[in-house]
Amino acid sequence: MGADLSVFISGITGSDCSSGSLSLKSEPSLGDLPESCVALVLASLDPPEICKLARLNRAFRGASWADFLWESKLPSNYQVLVRKVFGELPVDLGNREIYARLCRANSFDCETKKFWLHKSTGGVCLSIASKGLSITGIDDRRYWSHIPTEESGFRTVAFVQQIWWFEVDGEVEFPFPMGTYSLFFRLQLGWTSKWFGRKICNTEHVHGWDIKPVQFQLWTSDGQHAASKCFLNETGKWKYYHVGDFVVDKSNAATKINFSMTQIDCTHTKGGLCLDSVVIYPSQFRERLKRF
Q: What are the TM regions of this chain, as residue ranges (predicted)?
């Protein structure tokens, strides 16, 4: 776009038309803008838009690397997050590269947990694998098993075939920046496989989840508590079940969150459930996740 506008014919100049001479007048283009001015304009855009405009010309490309521009997109405590990924803050990395690396899925705690930045907003997201949770009876192969699958970011899910006492607990301590966050369990009734390239959901063992609701709870280290209940009745589809929200008002300290999912009514068995992970997202994404 900038190249197309850089030079154009503004008209025929001069009063002597008989001379047959044409004058081409060069007009200012987007490429003539100072990089500092371009960077101020880019600062009002979200990161994907900045990266698209960086392809326009040299001025936009240079401005897109301005450190102050990307520092405004990074979380307020990004130095703490960087140390969690790299061990220490790399002195040779610019803020744009730091942002890009934090947007990747960064594993920690023996690869049972991952965190990343949402590319458009810079919001911190976190996921905890089923293998990072405390699951009652998980070592008894009569009830539970780990199933490999490409539908999980951790490449495996926990599957309960049949059990009387269903209880899943977990905790995470993480330096979330200030804001409001929502916690979800990612679950599916039935387990999926591929048959000649076609996705098939096996619901043979699904039972008992429509008799009594599942209880979800969370607690934070500063005394916040949330709880919810719901029946599980939709098969063959991964769903995010909302547990509750919590608020972080201090960015210089880690927040500890405990959470649970239980259905411990022993009057009936339940089974056929896949447990992928627990995820924590900025609450602004809550309605989006509910539509999955």
A: none
DSSP 169-213: EEEEEE-PPSEEEEEEEEEEESEEEEETTEEEEE-TT-BSTTTSP
Alpha carbon of residue 5 to chain centroid: 38
Is the pTM of the predicted complex or chain greater than 0.85?
no
The tokens of 130 are what? 């089923």
Give the tens place of pLDDT for each residue, 122-141.
999 999 999 999 999 999 99
- For the chain, the domain total comes to 3
Q: Which of 137, 272, 270 is nearest to 191 (CA)?
A: 272
Domain containing 91 equals 78-104
Q: Are residues 49 and 144 in the same domain?
A: no
